[in-house]
Design a protein that fits this description.
alpha/beta, Rossmann fold, 19 helices, disordered C terminus
Length: 489
């Protein structure tokens, strides 16, 4: 190829990104090591047109449609040819964003770039979790943490396997503000995720700014019926539902509160300071202390605010509570009180003592360092925490489930962490089969502290419609939903 031909080809690629991808970009089969040119599949051509149209895209997909390869090829094209372009990539694990191999998003982008002919390359470097081009364009990578994308500004944002990311609602709030064009792809993972909510919104409201489509494995021309017959033989029902059919009903394993429905139980809420508020605690010191602010209304409850604070003493936690109550116009600030500091402290303590508070009975245990129990320490600041004699995890789980099932528990749309906790709280499961390994208690992780706090409130406000045994109640719940659906069939 002459220099003139190379210049001509460079310019052709600049103005035809799909030509660039299907002519010059290569993929590698991580199992066999085979390197192949990018396939020219019709669904990929359609996808490219939608990307270039600037649409916000929510796409549920089967596995092995080479979508993540395609998006990375698209980003390499943008990095090379676009003016002032910034991208953002996110997946649920850091290693899936960048592990320096083609198993990760940035590893795929590097493989594509490395295999381009030299005359199509500008200088692009791949420092960890970032891609930088010599023309000033760049891509930032993040895993699913609560600060992902916060404070940034990007032309293009991509979330891979969006149904599996942690802190989905919290991340979406930052992601949607940071990225001008938003693109999310994922295999199915049940009906209780941020991704499912966006897909449903896109289908039901064409003015919401999202487009939706399900990309089934049958879109690949090389997938014969024999392929699907063999896949069904080799996969569990959960795997096939998740990886091939995109079945939201059958694809989620181990969800604790499947009764929770975002569209039904998440509401806009305007607080009325004249209505009493209640607090519920999950204590922690090395672990976070989680607190929910709940407005009770007869036998209903609405979570209107949330606090999670790390490595803090009861006094420090109480100070945060006071600040929150001031912001809710339920306490006067010192400046508003027109009294001395001592008088103000006594006023705050008296007002806190009027608030019904609930928590873990373990908070009554004597501290190992010889100090009074946590509940006794809170009491010295006016926070009087009530507990049951003991907490029964199973009964507490069922009380929360019953409230969602009876529409007696709601979450303010501003409490995104609480929404994340409810959606993500899960039992320990066999990842391959979806079988629940322990149905007595859910996994103790970053989601469980707020979930515990909510459970304590529900335990202390048990619905009294009828008194039945745990066993009988489970049987009744089975009639209203497929109880412990993915793994207890």
């Amino acid at each position: 190829m002459t220099n003139a031909d190379k210049v001509k080809e460079f310019l052709k690629c600049k103005y035809d990104g799909y030509y660039f991808i299907t002519t010059y970009c290569k993929t590698i089969n991580n199992e066999s090591g085979d390197i192949k040119p990018f396939p020219n599949y019709p669904y990929l051509h359609k996808l490219f047109k939608e990307l270039e149209a600037g649409k916000n895209m929510a796409r549920k997909k089967s596995r092995r449609l080479i979508i993540s390869w395609f998006i990375m090829a698209y980003e390499v094209w943008k990095l090379t040819y676009a003016d002032n372009w910034q991208g953002f990539n996110l997946s649920y694990k850091e290693s899936l964003v960048d592990d320096h191999t083609p198993n990760s998003l940035h590893g795929k982008a590097k493989f594509i770039y490395d295999n381009l002919p030299d005359y199509l390359k500008i200088k692009i470097e791949f420092p960890y979790m970032k891609i930088t081009a010599s023309n000033g364009n760049y891509v930032i990578g993040e895993s699913s943490n609560v600060d992902a994308g916060r404070g940034g500004s990007f032309n293009f944002g991509f979330i891979d396997e969006a149904a599996f990311i942690r802190f989905g609602e919290t991340i979406y709030a930052a992601f949607s503000r940071a990225c001008k064009q938003k693109v999310m792809f994922s295999t199915a993972n049940g009906k209780d995720t941020m991704f499912y909510r966006i897909c449903k919104l896109a289908q039901e409201d064409t003015t919401a700014g999202w487009t939706y489509e399900f990309l089934h494995a049958r879109l690949r021309p090389d997938r014969t019926e024999d392929y699907f017959i063999q896949a069904k033989k080799e996969m569990t029902a959960l795997q096939y539902a998740r990886e091939i059919d995109g079945d939201d009903t059958s694809s989620k394993a181990g969800v604790v509160w499947q009764e929770f429905v975002y569209e039904k139980h998440v509401i806009p809420f305007a607080d009325n300071p004249n209505i009493p508020i209640e607090l519920t605690f999950d204590f922690g010191f090395a672990d976070p202390t989680a607190i929910k602010f709940i407005v009770p209304n007869e036998d209903c409850g609405t979570v209107i605010e949330e606090i999670e604070i790390n490595r803090s003493t009861p006094e420090q936690v109480v100070n945060v509570i006071v600040d929150k109550l001031i912001s809710l116009n339920r306490l006067k600030s010192f400046e508003q009180s027109n009294c001395s500091l001592l008088e103000y402290k006594n006023y705050v303590k008296a007002e806190l003592s009027k608030i019904n508070c609930y928590g873990d009975p373990a908070g009554n245990n004597a501290a190992q360092d010889g100090n009074p129990s946590l509940i006794a320490q809170y009491s010295t600041f006016g926070v009087k925490i009530k507990t049951l004699s003991r907490s029964n995890v199973q009964l507490g789980i069922l009380e929360v489930a019953k409230r969602f099932n009876k529409n007696k528990l709601y979450i303010s749309e501003n409490c995104v962490k609480t929404i994340d906790e409810i959606q993500s709280c899960h039992y320990k499961v066999n990842e391959r089969t979806g079988e629940i390994l322990d149905s007595q208690k859910y996994e103790h992780d970053e989601y469980s502290h707020g979930a515990d706090a909510l459970r304590y409130w529900c335990e202390n406000h048990a619905l009294q419609e009828k008194k039945i045994s745990v066993i009988k109640y489970k049987q009744e719940m089975t009639n209203e939903r497929e109880y412990f659906k993915s793994g207890r069939r």
